[in-house]
């Protein structure tokens, strides 16, 4: 086995999540001798498809796609390796307690008619709101595919890049102040400025809290909301879709491209430590004590695990003290809980009855108003599960019959808020997981009376489970908060945003680095480019 020899790899990549696989593919395509080590028994990290019950295949963690970079799809020729998207239309469905509902999607005329049921003013404002976000996206989205500049550097290249971005921002003209409000302000302030109907604002607000331990009233959630309107599906901007075969099919396609280029990918191998000497990386050691010498190491796991567990815990002097302290203060707070369910039938909504139809294709939002979000967050902040969880549910089997037995379906519920640390008097983790899941099932049943009997089985992934299963510190799906102080040249910490680290030859290639969380692949591609430049 190559891992048992002294022959150094050009690069060892820690973690076969989608970013690690993307990095491996680009390095191998450049002729580098690449090894990927993955702790779990399968590739994909959070983007995996697993058979949880006989015949039922779920996207265990990540569940929809839009942000994955189109250039990567093209350059790695992922369709040749089995990747295919299933666009969703409509893209969202919100049933309401009063018996009304809201369907929204890429059909702009249909969406305007739906919104007009609640407010004609909102229906008129929606195209202008979407146009503003698209203008901002035209400026921001290109930065996803670039290494961030360092504003504290004296490098002419950094200053030239900063000037280029400043000039691009100037193109917004009068929309510039609004762009600042979107990027730095609260989602509530943004939505209240544009709209008056609470059903529309509540539906949009759920995208502002995905993966964030925050509420829409908090500064920074405007960017989280904006983050989820970037991207595309089959060339159509802002449309989210399902990956045919589940999210694991995307990871398998990237792995196929990496292997075709010569990368060696091994599962069931957990990295225990990153070897360093005289300020330079030397390779990695797995939990069995096997050494893998390497000229460069790219870590797709988060900054806490990379620096504090894999380096600082073994050599307290390898990293600068100020850097270690900055990493210790990265915000990994999380209130996200993923529930996967096997269903014998789709939910039959009282407000829009019938079998599998438009109301089942996109994301089902269970959030009657933003006050419900605030109450749920307040409970989680104090260590208790939400009494009325905020739910974004999807049923990908409506469009992809390969995921469930004939007539049956799989559902993903991405929910807020379940605290990472429970209050002392809250009870055990298992008790709270069962109680929380039953509350989510009750919530869906209140809109679709058949739902409880439709549930065959379910699994609950609390923040603690997300941490233990996928290695996400604190259960944070973004590998660290996505607020303005943790983005672009501030990610993961100021002064180290170029994928490079204080250890020469060690790079971050996952969501801990720019541009952050979401199934994008950009961090892996950008980090590989930096490693090819300097390693």
Describe the structure.
There is one protein chain. By secondary structure, this protein is an alpha/beta fold. It is 34% helix and 19% strand. It folds into 3 domains: 2-47 and 67-81 and 246-330 and 477-534, FAD/NAD(P)-binding domain, CATH 3.50.50.60; 119-230, no CATH class; 335-419 and 421-461, Guanine Nucleotide Dissociation Inhibitor, domain 2, CATH 3.30.519. Helix 7 (187-194) crosses helix 9 (221-227). It starts with 8 loop residues before the first strand and ends with a helix.
Broad shape: globular
Q: How much helix, percentage-wise, in residues? A: 25-40%
Characterize the largest beta sheet: strand count, sense, and whether it forms a barrel.
Answer: 7 strands, mixed
Q: What oligomerization state is this entry in?
A: single chain
Structural class: alpha/beta
Discrete helix count:
17
Number of strands: 20
Radius of gyration (Å): 23 Å
CATH class descriptor name of the largest domain = Alpha Beta
CATH topology of the largest domain, which one?
Answer: FAD/NAD(P)-binding domain
How far apart are the termini? 24 Å
How much of the sequence lies in strands comes to 15-25%
Number of domains: 3
CATH architecture of the largest domain: 3-Layer(bba) Sandwich
Name the CATH homologous superfamily of the largest domain: FAD/NAD(P)-binding domain
């Amino acid at each position: 086995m190559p891992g048992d020899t002294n022959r150094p790899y050009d690069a060892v990549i820690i973690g076969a999540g989608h970013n690690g696989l993307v990095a491996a593919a680009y390095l191998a395509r450049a002729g580098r001798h690449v090894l990927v080590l993955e702790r779990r028994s399968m590739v994909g990290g959070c983007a995996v498809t697993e058979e949880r019950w006989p015949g039922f295949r779920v996207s265990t963690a990540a569940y929809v796609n839009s942000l994955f970079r189109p250039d990567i799809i093209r350059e790695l020729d992922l369709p040749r390796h089995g990747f295919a998207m299933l666009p969703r239309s409509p893209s969202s469905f919100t049933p309401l307690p009063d018996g009304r509902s809201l369907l929204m999607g890429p059909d702009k005329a249909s969406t305007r008619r739906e919104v007009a049921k609640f407010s004609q003013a909102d229906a008129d404002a929606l195209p202008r709101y979407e146009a503003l976000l698209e203008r901002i996206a035209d400026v921001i989205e290109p930065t996803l595919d670039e290494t961030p500049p360092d504003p504290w550097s004296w490098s002419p290249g950094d200053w030239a890049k900063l000037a280029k971005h400043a000039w691009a921002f100037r193109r917004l003209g009068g929309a510039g102040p609004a762009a600042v409000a979107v990027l730095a302000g609260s989602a509530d302030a943004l939505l209240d400025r544009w709209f008056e109907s609470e059903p529309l604002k509540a539906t949009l607000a759920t995208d502002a809290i995905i993966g964030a331990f925050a509420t829409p009233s908090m500064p920074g959630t405007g960017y989280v909301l904006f983050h989820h309107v970037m991207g595309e599906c089959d060339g159509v901007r802002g449309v989210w879709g399902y990956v045919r075969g589940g999210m694991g099919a995307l990871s398998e396609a990237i792995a196929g491209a990496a292997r075709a280029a010569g990368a060696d990918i091994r599962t069931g191998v957990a990295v225990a430590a990153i070897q360093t000497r005289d300020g330079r990386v030397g390779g990695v050691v797995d939990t069995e004590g096997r050494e893998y010498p390497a000229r460069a190491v790219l870590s797709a796991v988060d900054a806490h695990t990379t620096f504090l567990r894999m380096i600082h815990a073994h050599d307290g002097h390898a990293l600068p003290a100020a850097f270690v302290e900055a990493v210790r203060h990265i915000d990994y707070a999380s209130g996200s809980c993923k529930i996967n369910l096997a269903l014998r039938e789709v939910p039959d909504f009282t407000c829009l009855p019938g079998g599998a139809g438009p109301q089942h294709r996109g994301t089902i939002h269970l959030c009657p108003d933003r006050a419900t979000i605030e109450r749920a967050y307040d409970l989680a902040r104090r260590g208790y599960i939400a009494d009325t969880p905020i739910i974004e549910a999807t049923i990908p089997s409506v469009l992809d019959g390969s995921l469930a037995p004939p007539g049956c379906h799989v559902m993903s519920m991405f929910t807020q808020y379940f605290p990472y640390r429970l209050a002392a008097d809250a009870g055990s983790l298992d008790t709270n997981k069962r109680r929380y899941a039953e509350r989510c099932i009750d919530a869906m049943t209140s809109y679709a009376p058949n739902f409880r009997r439709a549930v065959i089985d379910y699994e609950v992934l609390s923040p603690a489970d997300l941490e233990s299963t996928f290695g996400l510190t604190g259960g944070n799906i973004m590998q660290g908060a996505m607020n303005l102080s943790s983005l672009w040249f501030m990610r993961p910490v100021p002064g180290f945003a170029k994928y490079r680290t204080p250890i020469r030859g060690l790079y971050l290639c996952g969501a801990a680095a720019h541009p952050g969380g979401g199934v994008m692949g950009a961090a892996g591609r950008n980090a590989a480019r930096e490693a090819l430049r300097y390693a």
